[in-house]
Structures are given as structure tokens and as C-alpha cells.
Design brief:
Number of helices: 13
Shape: globular
Helix content: 40-55%
CATH topology of the largest domain: Rossmann fold
Structural class: alpha/beta
Strand order of the largest sheet: 3-2-1-4-5-7-6
CATH architecture of the largest domain: 3-Layer(aba) Sandwich
Strand content: 5-15%
Oligomer: single chain
CATH superfamily of the largest domain: Vaccinia Virus protein VP39
Largest sheet: 7 strands, mixed
């Protein structure tokens, strides 16, 4: 399967440009995937640049190792979430790094592999698609597990916050009623409940897309991992180092935007307090006032790039 792990890097030229790559740089790809960004980074940091690649998905790591084999010892990989990026860098023997790229969300391979359960594929019978959605299938609860145990209030919160789904309360109630009769184990089971609850009718997005997104985020704690990973990334960037983040929906992008703004401001004292007492100085200089978006040509070549938004920032020296 790993040899078929396809990965089209989104905003690749923009990402490498904002990383300000140079020979000998130490760069972390916190979402290694199929190795598309990593290959470009290694080519532009030769002959002695180092790439540390992280991924929660063992299938992605295997595929990336095959793709990057020709770069030899310049590539180091580790199976872990980018939420632990600071620990991974230290484990690899570095005190700080020159750049970090985070390509958030789900890879095309994961989306297009029915047994992963990340979406309801039109070319695969939904009754054959399990409700899994884990980035690492060796650990943690599946989407089916969450649907079986979560309260109606918790389900509503996920659907409302992570899926921005109209009718979240109605669908949460329908799920809890349905599971009393029969467990929801496949995409077909969930699609049937979504259809019968009549949520999200008449909107641009298929309501099932929003439901699957919400469950995927909940299964993998994606937003929590993003907040933790951004903080950890800032800690291990050396002054002048660059952080590039590519988000695919407003929830992720909002977290990145707020983080960059807060780190550019530094002080966390109440706005009306006349004198700063927190002593916290700025740590980042944002490089993108507004997020960069893919060109029409790139979207035509890769429709899944349509919603991508790139933000970048540079680590600055904290005032003494």
C-alpha cells in the first residue's frame, strides 16, 4: 500500500520560499505524509541539510521513507504527532531548528482509502466503509467508538464547533436514539441517520461532509494538537527560523492566525492595564498579513487545494 501513497503538496513553491531554505539547514516536516514537501526541502538544503519528518500515520512514514531513500542519512523520521515536535527535535539530537512546515488535515491517500473511513466515497459502497478515522490505526478510539459512548450534548458540541453544522442538536439526538436500536459501525449507518434527521438541507456543503469532518477532528483531537504543536514549534525554532502552516478550514486557520497575532504582541496583560506586569515579549514576526491561497492553475490541477490557506512567521529574539 505504501508505494501507492500519493501526495500532491499544496502551495509547494510558496512554502519553500517562506521557509527561506539554505544549504545545511535543519528543517522539520511535522506532517510528513507522502514526503512531497520533504523532497523539495531536501533538494533545496543540499548537500548537508537535515530533514526531520514526523507523522502519526505509520503508512505515511513507510511511504515517505521509500520516496526519500536516496537522501540517505539526511532524512530522519519518527512516528508521532506534531504536538510533540519539541520532544522529537530533542530526541533527534537538536537544540533548535531552522524551519518547520505543517500541512494540516488529511492526505489524499487517507481520504481515498475506504478502510480508513475518513469520508463516504461515491465509488465505494458506504456499507463497506468503517467509521474509523484514526490517523494511527494502532491506537485510540474510532469514530464508531465515539458515536457509541458520547452523550448527546457532547455530540452536539462536536457537530456545532468542528463541523459548523446547522441542526447539530437534532442530529445528535437522532444518533443517540438510533444507537439504542443498533450500533453505528459503517458510513452507511451514519449516512442513514443524517438523511433521516434532515439536517443541513439546502446548504452549499453536503451535511455528511461536515459531519465526517467533525468526527475526524474529534477522533484525532486535531485542534488541540494544533494549539499544542504551535506552542512547541515556537519553542524549538532558533531566532530567524521560519514556521509555515497550511490550513484547510476556518477552524484551523483561525487558531493559526490568533497564535501568530498573540506571539507578535507578546504581552498578555489585560488591555486596560496601564503597565505590563507579565514580562512577556514578542516571539514571532508574521510574514503574511493575509493567508496565501492557491492559484487557479493549482486548483485546476489539484481540486483539493481549493480551501488551502498558508500563513508564515519568523522567530525573533526575545527582549531581555
Amino acid at each position: 500500500m505504501s508505494s501507492n501513497f500519493h501526495h500532491l503538496p499544496v502551495l509547494l513553491e510558496e512554502s519553500t520560499a517562506h521557509l527561506a531554505l539554505r544549504p545545511g539547514a535543519v528543517i522539520v516536516d511535522g506532517t510528513l505524509g507522502g514526503g512531497g514537501y520533504a523532497q523539495a526541502i531536501l533538494e533545496q538544503t543540499g548537500p548537508d541539510g537535515i530533514l526531520l519528518g514526523l507523522d502519526h500515520d505509520p503508512e505515511a512514514l513507510e511511504a515517505a521513507r521509500l520516496r526519500l531513500a536516496d537522501f540517505g542519512s539526511r532524512v530522519r523520521t519518527l512516528q508521532c504527532s506534531f504536538a510533540r515536535i519539541d520532544e522529537a527535535v530533542q530526541e533527534a539530537g537538536f537544540e533548535a531548528v531552522d524551519g518547520i512546515v505543517l500541512d494540516l488535515g488529511v492526505s489524499s491517500h487517507q481520504l481515498d482509502t475506504p478502510e480508513r473511513g475518513f469520508r463516504f466515497a461515491t465509488d465505494t459502497p458506504p456499507e463497506e466503509t468503517p467509521l474509523d478515522m484514526r490517523m494511527d490505526r494502532t491506537q485510540g478510539e474510532t469514530a464508531a467508538d465515539l458515536l457509541a459512548r458520547a452523550s448527546a450534548e457532547t455530540l452536539e458540541g462536536w457537530l456545532r464547533e468542528y463541523g459548523e453544522l446547522p441542526g447539530a442538536r437534532r442530529l445528535a439526538k437522532a444518533i443517540t436514539e438510533e444507537r439504542r436500536r443498533e450500533p453505528l459501525r459503517t458510513a452507511a449507518d451514519l449516512l442513514r441517520v443524517i438523511d433521516s434527521s434532515r439536517v443541513g438541507r439546502g446548504r452549499r456543503h453536503n451535511p455528511a461532509t461536515l459531519v465526517f469532518q467533525a468526527l475526524r477532528i474529534a477522533v484525532n483531537d486535531e485542534l488541540g494538537a494544533l494549539k499544542t504543536g504551535l506552542e512547541a514549534s515556537i519553542r524549538i525554532l532558533r531566532p530567524g527560523g521560519r514556521l509555515v502552516v497550511i490550513a484547510y478550514h476556518s477552524l484551523e486557520d483561525r487558531i493559526v492566525k490568533r497564535c501568530f497575532r498573540a506571539e507578535a504582541r507578546g504581552c498578555i496583560c489585560p488591555p486596560r492595564q496601564p503597565i505590563c506586569t507579565c514580562g512577556r515579549g514578542p516571539r514571532l514576526q508574521p510574514l503574511t498579513r493575509k493567508p496565501l491561497r492557491p492559484s487557479d492553475h493549482e486548483v485546476m490541477e489539484n481540486p483539493r487545494a481549493r480551501s488551502a490557506r498558508l500563513r508564515s512567521a519568523e522567530r525573533i529574539v526575545e527582549a531581555a
